[in-house]
Each structure stands twice: as C-alpha cells, then as structure tokens.
Write a structure and sequence with these properties.
Blueprint lengths: L2 E4 L4 H9 L6 E2 L11 H11 L3 E4 L13 H22 L2 E7 L22 H16 L2 E7 L2 E2 L6 H9 L4 E5 L3 E2 L2 E2 H13 L5 E4 L6 E2 H12 L4 E5 L19 H7 L6 H14 L1
Parallel strand pairs: 1-2, 1-3, 3-4, 4-5, 5-10, 6-9, 7-12
Antiparallel strand pairs: 8-11
Helix pairs in contact: 1-6, 3-4, 5-7, 7-9
The structure holds NADP nicotinamide-adenine-dinucleotide phosphate.
NADP nicotinamide-adenine-dinucleotide phosphate (NAP) binds next to α1 and β4.
Length: about 280
C-alpha cells in the first residue's frame, strides 16, 4: 500500500504521519513541495506518485477567516476533496477524509447521527459539506471521518490558548452554551489506522470521544489538570460575537463507528489528560 498523506504539518496530519507508518510507505508533501490550491500541481503530483491510499488531513480550518476568504476555503475544503475523489475513482484508490461537526445546524440537544440533515451556519461549514458531498457522489472508495473540536499538543488550538492565557489571567469568560466533545488529533490518527487496517466499509462515520462538555467545561478541566488557578466564567455565545456563527449543539453519536470497528471510544476527560501530559512534558 502506497499512502499519500496531505496536511502533515497540521494537528491531525502530524499524528497520522507517525501512526500510519506501519501500514506502508508514506509520501507526505508539505506546502513547499505541493501547494494544494494549485489544481494542476495536484493533478501532476497524483500522476507521478500514483498512491493507492490518500489520507487527506489538509483543510482550510480558519473558521472566521473563511467568511472573508471564501475562495481559498472553497478550494481546500471542497475543490481539493473532489479532485482527490476523482483520482481515487479513476485509479481504484481509497480516499480517507475528515469532516466537521460544523456541517450540522446546531439546533436541539440530540446527538447528530450520520443520517441527520445537515445545515451549516458558516462558510467553513458549507465548504466542508461540499467536500463531503463531492466525495460521496464520486463513486470513490471513501471513508469520511466527521470529528469535532480538534486539539493536540502541537499547532494552535483551544487547549494551548487556555494554557497560555492562564499564565497572565486570573479569570476568563468562556462560552458555555456550545456543547460537543473535544477530540485529540492523536485519537483521530489511531482510529484512522484501525479503520484502514480493518478495511472499514466505505462511508461516513462520526469520530469523537464519549461524553460532552462546553468550551467553558473544557477550559475548567484544562485548568484543573494543569494545576492552574484561573477561573473559567460561563458566558453565552451572544456575549462572544465572532464573524462565523458556530453550532450550539455539536454532539455526535459515534455508535456506527464503534460497532463497525468493534471498539469503545474513550471519554474526552481521559483523552485531555493524555494530551495535556504530552504537551507539558515536551
Ligand atoms: N480543528 C478543528 O477543530 C476541526 C474540527 C472538526 C474537523 N476538523 C477537520 O479535521 C481535519 C484536520 O484538521 P486540523 O485541525 O489538523 O487542521 P490544521 O491543523 O489547520 O492543518 C491543516 C493542514 O492543511 C495544510 N494546508 C492548508 N492549506 C494548504 C495549501 N494551500 N497547500 C498545502 N497545505 C495546506 C496545512 O499546511 P501548513 O502547516 O503549511 O499551513 C496543514 O498541514 C480537517 O479536515 C478539518 O476540517 C478540524
């Protein structure tokens, strides 16, 4: 199996680069080797490398900036996955791709299922959904792992921002009415490896730890585990306006993936403890 990994410098891509290595040789171009906004360069790269497994962890993930920089987000999140799916269809390759809880409309309190109606609230969510739909319509052998609130010991993310702010602030106001499950990039990579190795049936699967929390609950647990005295005050989303609207309900039912892989996903608290330890020991 020859694996092409895109996005190796990102949170998920970094973890995939080490976790997937027992599965076969990996070609992992960085931005300096392959600009993914360049459709022709991607076409030529695919023709030269001829992968039979593409794992696409590259994306435009700047949610607020996507409201302005629509065309870049569109290319990375929708055009690129479509192009990769076309290659996979024509070359009998498998495509593994990552989707987002931001494709859902965020109403109610019931966890979303893979069959739930979508309804993105932001340009980011719209472009991610377009990418998913292009893959699904392509006829390619595909796995779409839809995840939420990704963080890791590397890159920029909520956990690292909270730890940085805790150095100088005694209290912080943090949104408490958006509910979901923080997902470490390491867990995503581990489950991806299992899914590839066990030849998981093609389709869309939710992937997140069990349990739920708010951003404020997440921050409280980060401070508690890191031994910080910073107080996390709950505020509503309306008190923290952002260019892009976020879903209030990001709960995702993961039973389809757990059943298909015969695994039990861990809870978000235990995953935070592992990720935080990794970060603090660096
Ligand atoms: N972050 C979240 O909270 C979240 C939540 C749900 C789903 N997801 C999805 O999970 C997947 C992985 O997310 P992540 O958080 O790991 O993303 P990330 O850390 O932002 O990494 C994105 C990757 O894409 C690469 N990239 C972007 N534009 C590029 C270009 N023009 N040419 C070459 N490379 C380019 C980046 O390279 P550089 O390092 O060079 O910029 C980086 O390696 C994405 O599909 C995302 O939509 C993320």
């Amino acid at each position: 199996m020859h694996i092409l990994l895109l996005g190796k410098t990102g949170q998920v891509g970094f973890e995939l680069n080490r976790t997937l290595s027992p599965l076969g040789p990996i070609t992992a171009p960085g931005r300096e080797d392959l600009d993914l906004t360049n459709e022709r360069a991607v076409k030529n790269y695919l023709a030269e490398t001829q992968p039979n497994l593409i794992v696409n962890a590259a994306a435009w993930t700047a949610v607020d900036a996507a409201e302005e920089q629509h065309s870049e987000a569109q290319r990375l999140n929708a055009g690129l996955p479509e192009q990769l799916a076309q290659y996979a269809t024509a070359n009998n390759a498998r495509l593994v791709h990552y989707s987002s809880d931001y494709v859902y409309p965020g109403n109610g309190t019931t966890p979303w299922q893979e069959t739930s109606a979508t309804g993105p609230l932001s340009v980011y969510g719209q472009t991610k959904l377009q990418g998913d739909e292009a893959i699904q319509q392509s006829g390619a052998d595909n796995l779409i792992l839809r995840t939420s609130w990704v963080y890791s010991a590397r890159c920029n993310n909520f956990m690292k921002t909270m730890l940085r702010l805790a150095e100088s602030k005694t209290e912080l106001n943090i949104v408490a009415d958006q509910i979901g499950a923080p997902t470490p990039a390491r867990l995503i990579a581990q489950v991806t490896a299992l899914a590839i190795h066990s030849k998981l049936k093609a389709g869309l699967y939710h992937l997140a730890p069990t349990g739920e929390t708010s951003w404020q609950g997440f921050a409280k647990e980060i401070f508690r585990l890191a031994g910080k005295n910073t107080k996390a005050n709950p505020i509503p989303t309306s008190d923290y306006p952002t260019p892009a609207q976020r879903p209030l309900n990001s709960r995702m039912d993961t039973i389809k993936l757990e059943t298909a892989l015969n695994i039990q996903l861990p809870n978000w608290q235990s995953q935070l403890a592992l990720t935080l330890n990794e970060y603090l020991e660096k």
